[in-house]
Design goal:
The chain is mainly beta. The chain has nine helices and 53 strands. The structure holds 2-acetamido-2-deoxy-beta-D-glucopyranose (3 copies).
Length: 820
């Protein structure tokens, strides 16, 4: 039979914090004692309206109050409350008419407590028994009909119907049995004489008395009453009180006097000698008390524990010499002493807890119990300071351990929480328990670069694969949540993907060049490197890496004017009247490098007349050093070297051809030139004499030229003072012309660029440039071409072994031809 009632009760607890919380409904079941394990008592899920499937998740369980015994259990599959251990009603409740065991039914998430009371019903599992199986009774033969002799009652551990119901006395001619109840409520029996005894007829007799209980099946116990018929009669002892009451603090020492019982007998001599003994005593009591047979003192012989039993009832018997006896009850109340420290039980713990749980999350359930009673069992519970946890009193003596703030595994990953419980006894007792809680990681920290931005410096012409720099990001999270992987963020540098410039090692953050950089193409660029952790979802951050390419002296100076030696032949006119210091020409050179590497210096390494011309060290301007004399050679060669300032420095050389003459128109006049050159006085007759020679030469030259023209269609350029440098000739993106200038690619070159001479009167020979010759060929004339034209003239410009006269004559004659 299972009955259920729902009671809503409020429990107010005066704890450290006063919180009144109402428990949920109470459940009440009733169960027969001694049921087999696994027997179903009731269905909790149904009675509480809980989902069966949630029982397991909510860790439903049953705890017995203040006891380690686990008499009940829950079948989590179907919610049945089942018997987990043999329940013996007599063990728990003794003679109490009602036997209720109290349990806590605990559910978590959220914490829910139901009180569960289990009414244990008696079954007839104990037979009645007599304190002794042999009773000796001495009765005088003079006893009259109706005389009564007390017999100690039989006892049955069961209660109500299952306890002793009736007595059956063996059939005999003299006695009948009568049941009686004392004023204290205890039962006893009496033998009543039905027919007088006659000692001479029968000296003694043995009668069997049977006590039966009312259970089903019926159980019984027997005692043999041995009656000896005597000659005389006497009085039974009488106790001074029917019920003795004593109080005894628990833990009383051995031999402590509890109480003294006393009975008096009206008889004298042997008949008045009273002895005491326990007539009925539970096994438990037998271990704790003893009765002095002579004095009636009850003393402590065992360990009195309030928690084991708070009240003892014993029946003492006083007997006189002839075996007449009477009984009295002794009730010993044990008083509580604060001898039990509170116990802290950890009923449930969530560990590890994720670090991102919100404040107020319940992480554990604590139960405190104190086996003492009254104020001795009132318990205050607290935890140590400086932890982000607190205890919240919950239902009854349960506490929730909840978080009070945000947890951060990166700051503190483990907590040892000490829970201290102190009772209110005097002196108070306390105990503590340490709960270890660990905090689980959540990917809540992105990787952070050690620096705000990184710069890498690399010299140009680096080897592909060379290391530029390395980036490092830190992530304090745990394991993969803190494992950093580096990568390049996609982007473009000069129109090409960044990955074609750099690569980053995903594990180490080392950045390597993928290609060789050219300072002349780009000087710096930026890339973004991302650090990402391996969490899910991953967190990332990025950083800018600036790469600066530095220059190395890998470009030699490039001479724009005059064109480099060996390829071209260029001539400048120098007026004969030029004074010292006049600007004659200028060497123009550029260097694709920058800084020192492009800082150019100019030197004349060889010249026809070392004292005549100087060159500006950094300007490249060629000036006369002194006035020009008539005696100076008309043709001057300079070899100019242009060096940059790099380490090591690079250089280029060019040749500069200078012709000392007043103007181009004058040049063809052989007379003038020879006059200038030779500085001698030629008479007109010499000229006339030469006319005839020239006639001969003329015809000779015409023949040679005729042959030449036929063989070569390329026109000759002679004494070409006018130079055109088309802008397309310049290399692109030249930044500096020389160490001082700022010649840009947009510099507009024109015909005058090539000569720095103010005084020269240059004429542009448009017919050669525009029509006959490709632009670049204007600048490139190999000396051999001249040699062809001059016949035996030595083509080495700086050596100049050709004699002046023949040179003059050649020039003159050639000019004549040219005019034609
Ligand atoms: C917690 O206690 C354990 C064992 O006593 C110890 O190893 C650990 O270091 C303690 N942790 C903290 C955070 O105090
Ligand atoms: C990483 O973080 C995630 C949540 O962000 C968590 O679920 C996981 O357990 C963490 N991993 C480790 C190894 O702690
Ligand atoms: C790089 O990080 C900055 C902030 O640090 C953010 O604003 C930006 O969007 C990120 N860039 C990329 C490509 O993730």
């Amino acid at each position: 039979m299972v009955t259920r009632k729902r009671v809503v009760q409020s429990y107010g607890f005066v704890f450290f914090f006063v919180v009144v919380q109402s428990a949920h409904g109470d459940l009440s079941y009733s169960v027969q004692e001694e049921l087999k394990r696994g027997s179903v008592i009731g269905n909790i899920a149904k009675d509480l309206g809980l989902e069966v499937g949630r029982l397991s998740a909510r860790k439903a369980r049953v705890d017995m109050e203040g006891n380690d015994g686990q008499y009940c259990g829950i079948n989590l599959r179907n919610g049945d409350l089942i018997v987990a251990e043999r329940i013996d009603r007599e063990e728990h409740c003794g003679e109490k008419p009602s036997c209720v065991l109290k349990f806590d039914l605990l559910l978590e998430n959220p914490l829910e407590l139901h009180r569960l009371s289990l009414q244990v019903q008696d079954i007839n599992d104990n037979a009645p028994f007599f304190p002794k199986d042999f009773i000796k009774l001495e009765i005088t033969e003079s006893a009259v009909k109706g005389a009564r002799y007390r017999i100690n009652a039989a006892h049955d551990a069961d209660i109500n119907k299952n306890s002793v119901e009736s007595y059956i006395l063996q059939q005999n001619p003299h006695f009948v049995f009568s049941s009686q109840t004392t004023s204290a409520g205890s039962k006893y029996g009496e033998l009543v004489i039905d027919k007088e005894l006659d000692r001479e007829e029968q000296q003694e007799m043995k009668l069997l008395l049977t006590a039966v209980d009312g259970g089903s099946p019926q159980r019984s116990g027997t005692v043999v009453i041995h009656i000896i018929v005597l000659d005389a009669n006497d009085n039974a002892p009488v106790f001074t009180e029917a019920v003795y009451k004593a109080t005894l603090p628990e833990n009383s020492a051995i031999n402590t006097l509890v109480i003294t019982v006393s009975a008096s007998d009206a008889d004298e001599g042997v008949n008045g000698e009273v002895t005491y003994e326990f007539s009925r005593l539970s096994d438990k009591s037998r271990k704790m008390f003893s009765l002095n047979e002579k004095t009636g003192e009850i003393i402590v012989t065992g360990n009195i524990d309030y928690e084991e039993g708070s009240k003892y009832e014993v029946i003492v018997q006083a007997k006189d010499g002839y075996g007449l006896s009477s009984e009295a009850k002794v009730i010993i109340d044990i008083t509580d002493v604060n001898d039990n420290a509170p116990m802290v039980y950890l009923k449930s713990l969530t560990s590890p807890i994720p670090e991102n749980v919100s404040p107020g999350t319940e992480v554990g359930i604590i139960n405190v119990q104190d086996r003492d009673s009254e104020t001795n069992r009132q318990v205050r519970c607290s935890i140590q300071q400086h932890v982000p946890f607190k205890l919240v009193p919950s239902i009854k003596n349960y506490y929730s351990l909840v978080t009070t703030g945000q947890l951060d595994r990166e700051l503190e990953s483990d907590y040892n929480i000490t829970i201290t419980a102190t009772d209110e006894g005097s002196p108070p007792l306390s105990s503590s328990k340490t709960v270890q809680l660990s905090v689980a990681d959540i990917n809540d920290n992105p990787p952070v670069f050690e620096e705000q931005s990184y710069s890498a410096y690399v010299t140009e012409n680096n080897k592909p694969g060379s290391t530029l720099c390395s980036v490092t990001a830190r992530d304090p999270d745990w394991r993969q949540n803190g494992t950093v992987v580096y990568s390049l963020l996609p982007g473009e540098v000069n129109g090409a993907p960044v990955s074609s410039y750099l690569s980053v090692n995903g594990d180490t953050g080392v950045i390597q060049a993928v290609r060789s950089f050219d300072y002349e193409k780009f000087r710096s660029f930026k890339v973004h490197v991302m650090a990402r952790d391996n969490g899910s979802p991953p967190l990332s951050s990025n950083v800018t890496v600036s790469v600066f390419v530095s220059d190395v002296n890998d470009n030699s100076p490039q001479i724009l004017y005059p064109a480099p030696e060996g390829n071209s032949f260029m001539t400048e006119l120098v007026p004969k009247a030029a004074h010292g210091g006049s600007l004659v020409s200028k060497v123009i050179a550029v260097d694709a490098d920058s800084g020192q590497n492009a800082w150019l210096s100019y030197h004349i390494v060889k010249s026809t007349d070392p004292g005549l011309f100087t060159i500006g060290l950094h300007s490249g301007e060629i000036r006369t050093q002194r006035d020009i004399f008539e005696s100076d050679s008309m043709k001057q060669n300079l070899i100019v070297s242009v060096k940059d300032n790099g380490q090591p420095s690079l250089s280029a050389t060019c040749s500069m051809y200078l012709l000392i003459s007043d103007n181009l128109a004058e040049v063809p006049e052989l007379k003038d030139i020879s006059y200038d050159e030779k500085n001698s006085k030629l008479t007109s007759y010499l000229i006339i004499a030469l006319v005839s020679v020239s006639t001969f030469f003329l015809t000779f030259i015409i023949i040679i030229l005729g042959v030449r023209f036929c063989r070569r269609r390329k026109p000759r350029l002679l004494f070409d003072g006018a130079v055109a440098i088309p802008s397309a000739y310049l290399p692109p993106n030249y930044a500096d012309v020389d160490g001082t200038g700022t010649l840009r690619s947009t510099y507009n070159y024109d015909a005058y660029l090539t000569t720095g001479s103010r005084t020269s009167d240059f004429k542009f020979v448009s017919s050669y440039n525009d029509n006959t010759l490709p632009a670049d060929q204007t600048l490139r004339k190999s000396p051999s071409d001249f040699a062809d034209a001059f016949g035996d003239c030595d083509d080495s410009p700086e050596v100049g072994t050709c004699s002046h006269i023949s040179f003059d004559m050649c020039s003159y004659l050639f000019r004549q031809v040219y005019k034609l």
